[in-house]
Please model this.
Amino acid sequence: MPAPHSEEFRRRAEELARLREKPIATIARDLQISESCLRRWMAQADVDEGHKPGLTGDERAELVRLRRENRVQAMETWILDLLEEGLSPDEIVGRIQIGDQTTLLNATGVHLLSGHVGKGQQFDWVFILGAEEGNLPFFKAQDAAAITEEARIFGVMLSRARHGVLVTFSQVVPTLKGADMLRERSRFWTALDAASPLDRKGIIQWIKTAPWNDLRLS
Model:
């Protein structure tokens, strides 16, 4: 993942764009950033300065912090529930598995794997996380051939599911240095949109009404 730009760099880039002495696309190219990135910075600055409605940078940071805390609390609750059921710590760790091509197919539990490892496997449900630009396709995929290969891998991940696929993306992700980075959903989402996927509310409603007994037997 590329290193995040400093606040001073972002502020200067926004100032240059607002002068309108050059097209925004040209300024972005001169600064070696994408035009969409520069426009996101400008939009966020408008919100921070009160010119447009939306979450300010500080509010986004607070939202990210709360989401992290919620994930940790959910994990702790899950572990405590299993302990109350009588499972040992080793058994709980065994519920999360990282396997290889020879063990994943028949092993039970949750499997954490990449799209490459998933080739040739089949699972009841597939959860694809991080469907954002820079991650899917990977930021190092610069030419048409590389993008096509990333799309092929995405297709492989989608085809691994027997019952259903949940694809997620985040608007804000933490960098390795702890800073928050704004992200855009993957360009591959357009292919999913063509299939009329369920949104968050639709997924929740489907989960409530799904014929789970039939699915377990299928």
